Amino acid sequence: MLGYIVRRTLQAIVVILGVTLIVFLLSQLIPGGQARAALGPKATQLQIAHFNHVNGYDEPLWVQYWHYILNMVRGDFGYSYKNNQGVAQLIMQRLPKTITLVGASTLLALVIAIPLGMAQAVRRNRPFDYVMTAVSFILYAMPAFLIGELLILLFSFTLNWFPSQPPSDASAWAVFTNPVAFVLPVASLAALTIAAFSRYMRSSVLDTVAEDYIRTARAKGASPRQILWGHAMRNAMLPIITLLGLSLPAIVGGALIIEDVFNYPGMGLLTVQAANNDDIPLILGTTLVATIATVVGSLLADVLYAAADPRIRLGGD
Fold first, then answer.
1. Which of 168, 197, 207, 284 is 20 to 30 A from 180 (CA-CA)?
2. Domain range for 71
3. CATH number of the domain within which 297 lies
4. Model's pTM, two decimal places?
C-alpha cells in the first residue's frame, strides 16, 4: 500500500510541475507582457523596461521559471496590482470559503446520489426508475447558472423561504453555522453532482448484482437487503470513488459559476472578478491553485480506490 501511495504521489508531483510550466508559459503570452497588464496601456517604454528589470522579467525564460517555482514553494504566487495585495493573501482569504462550499455540496450529493442510484437499480425499469432517470438527465443537461437562478426565483423571490445570497461577510464555516443562508448555493452545486453520481451508481449496482459471488450469496439464502448492502455496495462504490476524483474539475468549475450567481466571496467569484479586471497574476494564481486541488483530489481518489479494492495495490498498478 505504501509503495502504491508513493508512486501515485510522485506522478502527482510530475503533473503539478507540468501545470506550473504551462501556467508560466501562459504568463509569457500576455499581449504586451505582464508589465503592460500591470501598468496599463499608457505606460511608456521606459516604465515597462524598469518594471521588467525590477521583477526579473528581462532574464532568460529558464531563470524566470526557476524563480517562479521557488516563489511558489514559498507561497508567493505574485502580486495583484489591481487589488494592491499579494495573490497568495487574496487566495487564502477566499479559498476556505470555496472548500467548505464544495465540500458541503459534494457530501450532500453523495448522501443523496448513492441511495438514489441503488434504489433505481433495485426498481429498474419501473416508474420510479423512469422518473428519476428523466430528472437526472434534465439536471445533468442544465447549466449551473440556470439551476441557481431558477432556485432563487422559486425559493427566494416567490416562496420567500431562503435568502437569495449568503452574507458577504460570512466566515468559511458559516455553511455549517448558518445553513439556511447556504441552502440555495449548496443545492445548486449539488444538483449537477447528484444527477451524474446517481446514474453511475445505478449502472454500477446493476453490474455488481450480476456477478457470480452475488448469485452464490443468494444460493446460500442471504436476504436481498444483505446482498445489496453487505455484498454489492462496496464493489459498486468503486466507480464512484474514481468518478469523484475525475469530477473534481467540474465541481470546482461549477463553484466558480455558482459563487458568481449568488455573489459568494470565494475563489470562484475572485476568479471572475480577476477576469473582469484583467488581473493577470490573480487569474494565473487561481488557475494554478484550482489545478493543484484537482490533482490532489485525483490522488486522494486513487488512494481511496486502492484502500477499497486490494487488487489495485497488490497488482502493482
1. 197
2. 13-87
3. 1.10.3720.10
4. 0.74
